[in-house]
Amino acid sequence: MLKKVYGDECLSRTQVFEWFKKFKEGREEIGGDQRPGRPSTSKTDANIEKVREIVRQNRRLSIRAVAELINIEKKTVRQILYNNFNTKKVCSKMTSRLLTPEQKEIRMNICADILQNTENDPNFLENVITCDESWFFQYDSESKRQSMHW
């Protein structure tokens, strides 16, 4: 009946019997049991703060370099960056966008016209519809490998 109501969110039949047995034997806590193994000692608040400071100082450091600076595992540094800071790896490439002198002049004239129209009519920009926009970002980096940063 539980499966029909809750679907995949429900415990399996075996799990229900195990929990029933534990509560029948006198268990009062609903939390999970202690698991064997060594607890994580490297993902502490102090190490998280160290990673934050290192990344703020230099965003281009690799996970390996950050792990070596703090003397913790790469896996832990990766977890901190992904889970605690919601960062993603970005690999930037140089993208050049060179305009001819004629194209520059045309763009300058268009921008001057837009400025003049906005000065004459404050609501002018509300009527602008944008369609296809291309954004080009340029990063000053020595190589592709060095441009990988967080």
What does this structure look like?
It is a single chain. This protein is mainly α and 150 residues long. Among the domains are: 45-90; 91-127 and 137-142, no CATH class. 46% of the residues lie in helices and 3% in strands. The protein contains 6 helices and 2 strands; from the N terminus they run H-H-H-H-H-E-H-E. The protein has helices at 2-6, 13-24, 45-57, 63-70, 74-84, 101-120, and strands spanning 90-91, 148-149. It has a two-stranded antiparallel sheet. Helix 4 (63-70) packs across helix 5.
Order of helical and strand elements: HHHHHEHE
- What is the number of beta strands? 2
Mean pLDDT: 77
Strands of the widest sheet, in order across it, are 1-2
Biggest sheet features: 2 strands, antiparallel
Task: Describe the structure concisely.
With 150 residues, the protein is mainly alpha-helical.
Please describe the topology of this protein.
Layout: H1 2-6, H2 13-24, H3 45-57, H4 63-70, H5 74-84, E1 90-91, H6 101-120, E2 148-149
Antiparallel strand pairs: 1-2
Helix pairs in contact: 4-5
Search tags:
single chain, mainly alpha, two-stranded antiparallel sheet, 6 helices, elongated
